[in-house]
Amino acid sequence: DHQEIHFRDVSYFRPEEWYWTFGDGNESSQKSPLHTYAENGVYEVCLTVSNENSSNTSCQELQIGPVSNDNVTRQYDISIFPNPVEDYTRLVFHDYLPEAAWIMVYDVSGNAVYKTRIYQESMVDLSMLLPGVYFYEVIDGGKILSDGKLIKA
User: Fold this and answer.
1) Number of H helices, E strands in the chain
2) Strand positions, DSSP E, 22-153
3) What is the four-CA torsion angle of 50, 51, 55, 59, rounded to 10 degrees?
4) Apex CA 75: angle with CA 112 and CA 80, to 5°?
5) pLDDT tens string 1-40
6) 9 with 47: CB under 8 angstroms?
7) CA gyration radius, the chain
8) N or C: which end of the chain has fewer CB within 10 A?
9) pTM of this prediction?
């Protein structure tokens, strides 16, 4: 379930208390809570950690699945590496949780040569492709989130 998220505290300096807000009106005082969102959307998730000396709050925007009112100019933080690739490349969504995402790979003529389902973090097997230049699109909910060039060594 792409709406069920396991959050993990990776702070340092010996935190003793945790306070999470998930951007949907829910909160938790667990160190690494499991939270389920009711629907796709953009949420600001904040974590406040504290100990006997101080406290610190960190917030990050999280988009879960495609959102119809999403800003069309938004740049998604999606990594594909290594590139050039020999057989496998790793695709990671850094600020987006896909609902039903795909990567489409095209040859230089624009013909689709490969398609596979991808998740938050996926290993993509490109071993069947011949060496050369290819282009890719990362798609979720019919929306192109990222595109670029792949080089197969």
Assistant:
1) 0, 14
2) 27-28, 34-36, 41-50, 55-64, 78-81, 88-93, 96-97, 101-106, 112-118, 121-125, 132-140, 143-152
3) -30
4) 50
5) 789 999 999 888 889 999 999 999 999 999 999 999 999 9
6) yes
7) 19
8) N
9) 0.69
